[in-house]
């Protein structure tokens, strides 16, 4: 009697996104930004086509379908909104080369407190670097 090895998962349950897949997704949605609806989302067919577009870049995890693309797009939009909110605060620096450009111990402590607050964790990577997708998102929105 054959037994199945529980360590072997024929169908991964989670979509692992590589940097290349995310870049290709953002580029695809940027190129198809005319298909965007009023809410900043795209039609399901656009997400389906985007999933097909990034499929050749698949490395690991679940093969992305329209739902995975929709979810990833939501995270990308959240990141964009967090950056825009931060930048719109009076006196807060943002540029797409150095991010928030935090330097010095006092500023670093303030930054740590800021990103620890609810809703600000997506800003953590941008302490001293920009976001490679910012120009694309600005065009989309």
From TrEMBL:
Highest taxon of the lineage: Eukaryota
Name of the protein in question: Myb/SANT-like domain-containing protein
Organism lineage string: Eukaryota, Fungi, Dikarya, Basidiomycota, Agaricomycotina
């Amino acid at each position: 009697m054959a037994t199945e090895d529980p360590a072997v998962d024929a169908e991964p349950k989670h979509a692992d996104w590589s940097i290349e897949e995310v870049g290709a997704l953002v580029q695809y949605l940027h190129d198809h930004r005319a298909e965007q609806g009023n809410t900043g989302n795209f039609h399901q067919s656009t997400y389906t086509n985007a999933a097909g577009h990034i499929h050749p870049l698949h490395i690991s995890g679940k093969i992305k379908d329209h739902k995975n693309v929709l979810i990833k797009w939501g995270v990308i939009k959240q990141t964009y909104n967090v950056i825009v909110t931060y930048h719109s605060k009076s006196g807060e620096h943002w540029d797409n080369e150095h991010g928030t450009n935090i330097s010095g111990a006092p500023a670093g402590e303030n930054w740590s407190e800021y990103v620890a607050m609810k809703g600000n964790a997506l800003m953590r990577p941008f302490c001293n670097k920009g976001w490679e997708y910012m120009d694309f998102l600005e065009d989309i929105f």
